[in-house]
Amino acid sequence: MPTESGSCSTARQAKQKRKSHSLSIRRTNSSEQERTGLPREMLEGQDSKLPSSVRSTLLELFGQIEREFENLYIENLELRREIDTLNERLAGEGQAIDGAELSKGQLKTKASHSTSQLSQKLKTTYKASTSKIVSSFKTTTSRAICQLVKEYIGHRDGIWDVSVARTQPVVLGTASADHTALLWSIETGRCLVKYAGHMGSVNSIKFHPSEQLALTASGDQTAHIWRYVVQLPTPQPVADTSQQISGEDEIECSDKDEPDIDGDVSSDCPTVRVPLTSLKSHQGVVIAADWLVGGKQVVTASWDRTANLYDVETSELVHSLTGHDQELTHCCTHPTQRLVVTSSRDTTFRLWDFRDPSIHSVNVFQGHTE
User: Fold this and answer.
1) Which stretches of sequence are listed as region Disordered (predicted)?
2) In the sheet where 213-218 sits, what is the strand order?
3) Long-range contacts from 306-310, C-beta under 8 angstroms, 24+ separation
4) DSSP category for residue 144
5) Are 225 and 275 in contact (CB under 8 A)?
């Protein structure tokens, strides 16, 4: 009797288990529309930067994925129930079927077929729906080929700024954290002039619009104006020399033009140590400086939250531009108008208008978050 009651209870549990499986299947089928509609309502209520057409396409794709996997899950449950029924039928005949192997083989075949159909369907739908998005990122021009042309070696620390002279002779200027500014020959890569008048990091360098003057800003809370004199060799006509120079001569010329990387390149340059003008009104690091149109005034930007306008000839402070709430990060000027732009860590940049001597207006531009 205890044995019969135990077998009856086991059979009753198996029936209840199968009943719960069928109940879960009916519950899943009956709530299919409700569950597929819920994510759409939730996602549509959220803020998104995607276009509405793209969002609707994605929602449809997600809905198809959910329905396909749900059908696959239901089919797997039905296969498992058929295996249990077959085992119960054959149990009385003394035979048994390895449910794990059978279910594994049938489920693998069924899942492979369903997965292949789902994969092909998703690929076709995805390609069709995203072709417009992908095409917008494709370049319509040929790929640009970039290569290293010249290397300028001479600084001993990081380089903060690079500038090119506006007039002849055209030279390249670099500002470095090694407390120096160097002028370079663009063609040969050789150092032409070294400025060593600052006591701190040189943060920026700008050239005068018409004279051989350079303006540098430094971490020593000053900006310097200094004169440089460089004489570049006159370039020879290419048409006359290209046919006469042999391959060996070309190699010799290129070897002579290359700087000596092993030695200190800047030590061989003429050095300027005293500026023509030193601008000292800031109480913090001067992060940038630039010439106003005409070259008679300069503007500087500092970490003391101000930008100063100076007269070049007298070195006097003309205006102190206040209004930024945090440190200034940059300043630049218009090439033909008396306009100055300053940027700051307060997430704003300001346009200062000095075209009318009697009225100095400023416009504040907001939009950045950092």
Assistant:
1) 1-50, 237-267
2) 202-207, 213-218, 223-227, 277-279
3) 306/282, 307/331, 307/340, 307/342, 307/352, 308/279, 308/281, 308/282, 309/340, 309/354, 310/223, 310/279, 310/281
4) P
5) yes
pTM of the model: 0.56
Most confident of 82-86, 108-112, 332-336: 332-336
pLDDT in tens, 116-140: 665 565 555 555 554 555 555 555 5
Please count the helices (runs of H) and the strands (runs of E) in the chain. 6, 17
DSSP conformation letters of 277-344 = EEE---SS-EEEEEEPTTSSEEEEEETTS-EEEEETTT--EEEEE---SS-EEEEEE-SSSSEEEEEE
Decide if 92 contacts 80 (C-beta within 8 A). Answer: no
What DSSP string runs through 186-244? TTT--EEEEE---SS-EEEEEE-SSSSEEEEEETTS-EEEEE----PPPPPPHHHHTTT
**Which amino acid belongs to residue 138?**
K
The CA angle 89-95-96, to the nearest 5 degrees, is 80
301 and 259 Cβ atoms separated by less than 8 Å: no
The CA-based angle 78-81-87, given to 5 degrees, is 145
Q: For residues 76 and 153, give the distance between their C-alpha atoms in angstroms, rounded to a whole number.
A: 69
- The pLDDT tens digits of the residues spanning 285-339 come to 999 999 999 999 999 999 999 999 999 999 999 999 999 999 999 999 999 999 9
In angstroms, the CA 116 to CA 107 distance is 14
Instruction: Please tell me what DSSP assigns to residue 361.
Output: E
365 bridge partner residues: 349
pLDDT of 241 reads 43
CA distance 195 to 269: 10
Give the integer Cα–Cα distance in Å for 359 and 349. 20
